[in-house]
Amino acid sequence: MAHPRLSLALAVDLGLHKLTQKFQEVSSREIGSEFGQVQDISVAISGILKQYRFGASTIMELVQNADDAKASVLHILLDKRTMTHADLPPKYAELDKGPAIVVFNDAPFTEDDARSIQRVGLSGKVNDLTKSGSFGIGFNAVYHLTDAPSIVAGF
Q: Which residues pair with 102 in a beta bridge?
């Protein structure tokens, strides 16, 4: 599209295209193909951790998660032991040798919880002001403590 006083010849010389030509190009492409933005997970987590510094708030996020889940019990344990490969199931032998911080609460871990954890930076609690963790980073706080968090749940 060009200014009405611009001649068609000059518009073509300048590399401008007719609007109908653009529509034809678009219609010749596959319509309805998948499209989505992509962000590297480590970049997203790094950004979150820069906004929320390490400290007491890291543990507080885990307390808020238990509260939001209506847990009646919360245990936080520092396990200073280190394990050998022989002590662990094969699929965990490379990751979980210790020491570790173990956090347990008695609330059910739901599929919604699992989906929420997978959506880095997009808390499902944001629109629920009854949740104490609606303003925080939730599970992402654990990345202040480890690069490879593990969740053991029976849903």
A: 77
